[in-house]
Amino acid sequence: MTHTARIAVIGAGAWGTALALQAARAGAEVSLWARNPAAMSAGRVMPRLPGYALPSGIAVSDVMPRQADLILLACPMQHLRVTARNVPPCAPMIACCKGIEQATGLMPLQVLGELFPHSVLGVLSGPNFAHEIATGQPAAAVLASADRTQARRLADLLTTPAFRLYASDDPTGVQLGGAAKNVIAIAAGAAIGAKLGENARAALITRSIAELSRLSHALGGRPETLSGLAGIGDLLLTCTGAASRNYRLGLAIGQGTPAQQAADALEGVAEGRATAPALLQLARQHGVSTPVIATVTSLLAGTIDMDDASQLLLSRPVGHEFA
Ligand SMILES: NC(=O)c1ccc[n+]([C@@H]2O[C@H](COP(=O)([O-])OP(=O)(O)OC[C@H]3O[C@@H](n4cnc5c(N)ncnc54)[C@H](O)[C@@H]3O)[C@@H](O)[C@H]2O)c1
Ligand SMILES: O=P(O)(O)OC[C@H](O)CO
């Protein structure tokens, strides 16, 4: 008889809930840790899927699991450290959040590495709206770990025919893609909100990829990772999909709503807001020029408006495309 994998999902927001449903679909015994299980209601957790119901087989609790074969950390990036601190390191841990810790400039696996230096760690990222994963619509993502064999083994625990998890041994590139696409989605939304046009959005996305390639190289990521699911894949989804919270935050800012007010009106977290300044600082530390990320950071801080933002980007010198 084969052993049924026990998967513990930490964080019962939209993504944690969708991953719990996916893990159950993959045949695992699933537990879902919620800060406040009593506050979980369909409309609050999964605003895009108000009628969803967790199968009765998924145990929801505010007590951290003591045993598991795999732990998925699906809380927002800025709460990863404080949440993970309470997780018993009883199994490999996969960071499912996308962002950079603002206080330290660290990526998810660097935060987990500080807390759990002896655990097997991985990161899951890709073009995945939670409400589509929750309903089992086809999608693909990448699971990266420093050890390629571990990455494949852990990916297999969550893979189903409709959720295709590719393995990678480039966690740096995967984490950078996941963090940066949220910042670029704010830029794309702002361009559309300010009626700069779809040409402008396509140019922004493409030039952002050049920017991310420079940063990825400086951080030790592999170039091909950015052309994969966690890079271009997630940029395509988040910069064009109206369901993206980061895109919608940018859209509202582009239409003239102050950043704080636009963020308050969103249901759920827009990770790009806290990640933009952290990513900019990281780029500066490595001497990498990132004009789109810098412009989004200033827009979010309210130190420039949309006219300034487009002027800043349009007044840059035009040189060789891949200089
Ligand atoms: N929603 C998606 O479609 C999706 C898909 C892929 C990845 N992600 C990533 O998953 C992560 C979580 O996003 P989400 O959509 O589930 O979030 P969400 O907006 O649905 O929910 C936020 C969650 O954070 C929790 N929270 C608030 N304050 C907290 C605190 N102090 N400590 C711990 N938890 C706290 C809330 O209880 C809530 O469960 C993000 O990094 C996001 O980028 C989301
Ligand atoms: O709604 P967003 O902008 O947080 O995007 C959700 C996922 O990260 C898309 O892959």
From TrEMBL:
Q: Which InterPro entries match?
A: 6-PGluconate_DH-like_C_sf, 6PGD_dom2, G3P_DH_NAD-dep, G3P_DH_NAD-dep_C, G3P_DH_NAD-dep_N, NAD(P)-bd_dom_sf
List localization entries. Cytoplasm
Which part of the chain is the Glycerol-3-phosphate dehydrogenase NAD-dependent N-terminal domain?
Answer: 7-149
Q: What is its EC number?
A: 1.1.1.94
The answer, when asked if Lipid metabolism is one of the entry's keywords, is yes
User: Which keywords label this protein?
Assistant: Cytoplasm, Lipid biosynthesis, Lipid metabolism, NAD, NADP, Nucleotide-binding, Oxidoreductase, Phospholipid biosynthesis, Phospholipid metabolism
Which residues does the record give as substrate binding sites?
Answer: 98, 245-246
The active-site annotation reads 181
Q: Name one Pfam family in it.
A: NAD_Gly3P_dh_C
Q: Entry's PANTHER family?
A: GLYCEROL-3-PHOSPHATE DEHYDROGENASE, GLYCEROL-3-PHOSPHATE DEHYDROGENASE [NAD(+)] 2, CHLOROPLASTIC
UniProt: NADPH binding residues: 15, 35, 98, 130, 245, 269, 271
Q: Which family does it belong to?
A: Belongs to the NAD-dependent glycerol-3-phosphate dehydrogenase family.
- Entry's Gene Ontology molecular function annotations: glycerol-3-phosphate dehydrogenase (NAD+) activity; glycerol-3-phosphate dehydrogenase (NADP+) activity; NAD binding
Q: What reaction is this protein's catalytic activity? A: sn-glycerol 3-phosphate + NAD(+) = dihydroxyacetone phosphate + NADH + H(+); sn-glycerol 3-phosphate + NADP(+) = dihydroxyacetone phosphate + NADPH + H(+)
UniProt domain Glycerol-3-phosphate dehydrogenase NAD-dependent C-terminal: residue ranges = 170-309
**Annotated binding of NAD(+), by residue:** 11-16, 130, 245
The entry's function note states: Catalyzes the reduction of the glycolytic intermediate dihydroxyacetone phosphate (DHAP) to sn-glycerol 3-phosphate (G3P), the key precursor for phospholipid synthesis.
Under what name is this protein listed? Glycerol-3-phosphate dehydrogenase [NAD(P)+]
Its pathway, per UniProt, is:
Membrane lipid metabolism; glycerophospholipid metabolism
Among PROSITE patterns, the record links this protein to:
NAD_G3PDH
A biological process term (GO) from this entry: glycerol-3-phosphate biosynthetic process
Principal subcellular localisation of the protein: cytoplasm
Give residues annotated as binding sn-glycerol 3-phosphate. 98, 126, 181, 234, 244-246
Recorded GO CC terms: cytosol
